[in-house]
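Workshop exercise sheet. Pairs work together: one partner reads the sequence aloud, the other fills in the structure field after running the prediction. Swap roles for the next sheet.
Pair: D.N. / O.F.
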Amino acid sequence: MDLYECRIFQIRNTLIRPDVTVVGAGSAGCVAARRCAEMGLRTLLLDRKDESDIGKKVCGDEISKSHFDATGIDYPSGDEISSIISGADVYPPNIENVLNVRGWSDFDGWTVNRYMFGQRLLQEAKNAGVVFHPQSHVGGPIMRGDRVVGVYSKDASSGEEINIYSKLVIDASGFPGVVRKKIDNPLVEQNIDKRDIALCYREILSLNKPLEESEVARVFLGGDYSPNGYSWIFPKGHTSVNAGVGVTGGQGQGSPKNLFLSFKEEYPLFSDSKILDGGGGAVPVRRPLKSLVSDGIAFLGDAALMVNPIHGGGIGAGMRAGIILGEVAKEAIARKNLTAYGLWHFNSRFLSNFGRRLASLEIFKRLLTDVTDEEMNYGFEKRLLEAEDLMGANRGEGFSLGITDKMRRVKRGIGNITLLRKLQRAASLMKKMDFAYSQYPNSPAQLDKWNESVHFILEQAVFK
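Structure field:
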C-alpha cells in the first residue's frame, strides 16, 4: 500500500486530496475512474454501497458491441454474458404486424449479468490504481465561491464525517445527481420535466419453457401495459428473461409494477414463470444536460442524463463519456485550469458526437409517445415505419423520406395522411437537432444562444 492509500484508509480525520474524486461506482463512474488513473491522476472512487454490492442495479442489462469497440473496453465474457443479442421484434399496441429487425450490426451485443459486469469494471479500475472507498454517503459539494473544490461525505460504518478536497469532482451518482442538485450555477440544469422521466419496473424471470429465439429482444410499444412507454422482454439465456415496463412519469398512468403484473398475467410466455429478482426505479429519457461541466466538476452517466431517450439504456453512453472525461481531466489538470472553460472540451467531444445521437432520439421518443395507439397500429400494418427507419433513428440519423420513398409510403398510407405528415415532420426535426448538436458551442459564452435553438426545435416536436 502506498502513502496515498494510507492517507485514505488509515488517517480518516485528515483532509483527503486526490486529483479526482468520482462519486458513484456504476459503469460510467468505474470507467471514468479507471481512465483517470491510467492517465496518471490520483483517483478516489466513492460509492454508498458495500463493495460486494457494486453492480447490483435495476437495469435492462442489454448493451451493444459497438460501445466496446468505441472505448477499447474488453467485451463481456464467460459468466458476464447472459445471452448474445442479434435482433429484435418490435410490436405495436395490438401485438399484430410485428416488425422483425434482423441482420443489423447495430443490434449485435449482449444481455449481461449486471452484477458480474459491474464487479469487473470496478476491479479494472482498482487494478489501474484507483482507490475505492465503499459505504461513503456523499451529501453534496464543498464550494469555494462558484467553484466545486470537493465533496463532504459520511462513512456508513463508522458514522464519521469527512471532507474530501480534490482538483476535480465527477458526479456519476446516477439519476439522483446528489452533487449536481446542490449546485446553484447557470451552467447546471436542475429541474427535469416530469415527461422526461420514465418510471420502470422489471423482473428477472425463470421461464417454464425455453425461448424460441434466445438471441432476439422483444419490445412492445404503447397499449394497455405501457401507456406512453414500452414493455420489454430481453433474453438472459434460453430459459430466463429480463422483462419489464417503463412509462413516462407525470402522466397519471398508474404504477409500472401493476402494469407489468397485468402484462405478465396475460402474456403466454410468462405462464408458470418464477421470479428470480425484481425492482423498479426512475430513469431520464431526454437529451443530455446542456453542459456536462461547471467550475471544478463534471457530470457523467445518468447524473448527466446520458441515456437513450427511447428506452433509457445508458451503460454504453456512460462508458463512452467516461473514457473521454478521463482524458479531458488529465488535460485540464496539466494546464491547472479546472474552470468550466478548462473542462469544456468534454462537452465538445461528447455532445457534438455521440451526444447528438441521443438528442435526435428525443424527437423520435416524442413521436412514439404522442401518436395514438390506433395510429401506431395503422403505421405497423401499412409498414409506414420500417426496420431501416428504426436503425437510422437509433443512430441519430433520422429516417429516409426522400421523393421516391414518400410516394411509396403515401400509396401505402393513403388512409392516414396525418400520420404520414407526423413521420415527415419528425424526420425533419431529427435532422435539425443533429445539426444543432454538430454546432455545439466552443465555450460557455455561446451556450445560452445555442440552448435556445435546441428548445426551439423541441417546441415543434409535438405530434398529438
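Discussion prompt: The chain has three domains: 3-56+118-190+287-351, 82-111+193-284, 356-460. What would you look at next?
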